[in-house]
């Protein structure tokens, strides 16, 4: 167990990559708090799986677009588990739509969840993280390669995390905290099902002609969370099956 005694908070941990990550960090030894937006039942299922591993777990309803809720979620996790070592900024929304049909509301919503929510969560977490702390954000392969039209707003939101990661790596480095970003490629989840209408095109852009699984992304998050990754910061790690190659 490489994360024994550590506490992690995973945003958007009720499904998909976040759920796989929460469970993987628990398998590695961490106690895990997770947030969700709507799916209380699914979040409770993830909590049950973590508890079955002998770890403590907690699900917190918090819309990432609501800054007060995000700060409260971080503080609740710390109050419950007594510390915070790892923040995984995973919760996010997808968006596909052409430029001329993208509304101001669309822009505000996507940026509020995918960018502002990540910044606020990191700001709140940084008050509690100590030497050895970890911030790991889930970006996207669209930061390296936008495979087609209609993805500019989502790409804006995910590319913003690159600057955030590099800037915060500099800012938090002196405290022994690493800040990194993971870029998943097409990954089989509710957001991007492997049998969805755009799946064949996405699959064909990978070197393996297949989708990734949430657990493959979680494995890389797990490495970045571990003490042995302590000289990795400000970095992007792609888990994209060669999508950017
Ligand atoms: P899913 O749609 O399968 O799951 C999304 C998770 O985020 C759920 O737990 C959901 O909670 C939560 N969530 C969504 N909106 C909010 C919100 N406003 N506040 C709090 N939680 C929220 O997505 P994925 O697992 O596919 O995606 C996870 C991350 O990976 C995202 O940041 C996504 O952009 C990124 N990504 C995904 C790729 C893919 O191919 N799947 C590729 C590249 C990046 P609830 O269940 O309550 O709705």
UniProtKB/TrEMBL annotation:
Ketoreductase domain boundaries: 6-187
GO molecular function: oxidoreductase activity
Sorted UniProt keywords: Oxidoreductase
UniProt xrefs under SMART domains: PKS_KR
InterPro entries registered for this protein in UniProt: KR_dom, NAD(P)-bd_dom_sf, SDR_fam
Gene3D superfamilies, sorted: NAD(P)-binding Rossmann-like Domain
Family that this chain belongs to: Belongs to the short-chain dehydrogenases/reductases (SDR) family.
PANTHER family assigned: OXIDOREDUCTASE, SHORT-CHAIN DEHYDROGENASE/REDUCTASE FAMILY (AFU_ORTHOLOGUE AFUA_5G02870), SHORT-CHAIN DEHYDROGENASE_REDUCTASE FAMILY PROTEIN
Protein's recorded name: Oxidoreductase
Phylogenetic placement of the source organism: Bacteria, Bacillati, Actinomycetota, Actinomycetes, Pseudonocardiales
